Amino acid sequence: MSLRQTEKHMLPLRQVFAAKTAEFCEALLAILGRKVAFYDNGQVWATSQYSVGAAFVFQPAPRDLAAKDGGGGCCNSWAARMQLVAQGERGPQELSQLMRNWAVFLSRCHARVL
Q1: Which of 53, 54, 55 is nearest to 45 (CA)?
Q2: Per-block average pLDDT, block size 10, for the chain (114 residues)?
Q3: Domain boundaries along the sequence of the chain
Q4: In the sheet that 55-60 helps form, which strands lie side by side, from edge to edge?
Q5: Which residue in 35, 31, 39 sits closest to 86, CA to CA?
């Protein structure tokens, strides 16, 4: 199969995934009040619609770190790092717990997509 044929077959899949991703982001905004953006490098940015200054970024862990933590198999793709990249006027008092909750939530969502 040539590259052109492969790209032709992949186009409908890309369109479906783009539509489902947009639908998922809209649901997160409506339910949790969080704007979420997915990037090709694996990063996920989450910002609050109420405090635009507060933002988290989730990054996949490097493969060597994931291998140490997961011990092999499919679970390596679940390893991720979370970083607070911007904080609003009033940072939440329970920030560390919120960060853990978001990391677990997004890792589960990521696992379901795969």
Answers
A1: 55
A2: 87 91 89 85 83 78 59 53 71 64 74 56
A3: 3-113
A4: 34-38, 44-48, 55-60, 80-86
A5: 35
